Amino acid sequence: MIEIVVVIAIIGILAGMLVPMVRGYVGTAKERRAEQDTEALGKAMLAFNRDTARFPIYQSGSATAPTDAVFVALVTSEGAAPGGGADGWNSATVDTFEDQLKNNTVSYPTTGEFAWRGPYIGPVRKDPWGNRYVCNASKLLPTADNAAWVLSAGPNEVIETTFSQTMGSPTIGGDDIAYRIK
Fold this sequence. Notes:
Blueprint: H1 2-52, E1 73-75, E2 83-84, E3 94-96, H2 97-103, E4 134-135, E5 149-152, E6 158-159, E7 177-180
Parallel strand pairs: 1-3, 2-6
Antiparallel strand pairs: 1-4, 4-5, 5-7
């Protein structure tokens, strides 16, 4: 009986030491996945720009002048809207990355020198914490002198990065995970 108690105590001590270490690895893995996803979305937007000479932000593929209607933000179709960032990140004027980069639902031209040659992305999922990835798309206008990001709200699920930041010294807020496009 004493031997069983000793074995259970040893197992309890080992579990107490290993659980925090395993939780740390899980947290790091989630952050790494979010970094890879934001980078993949950002690079898909840059590939779109390389092909079409514009960014995937317009509400109509045939109206792509700097004065034409654009979406304020792009989001993934899966996931909940992250908290915070009410100054633009959670705008009502949004489109999805899938519509712009996978399905071409806004009908960018598919022939000619500057044609949509997608799809630029495969399936897009929510971030590791269950929220949408977002991009401050309106900052990609040629006339905008602002930094543009694809980001995840990170572990605290609140966007802490300022929506409008000048190009000079933009910063990522809090625990947000971001890829800078411009």
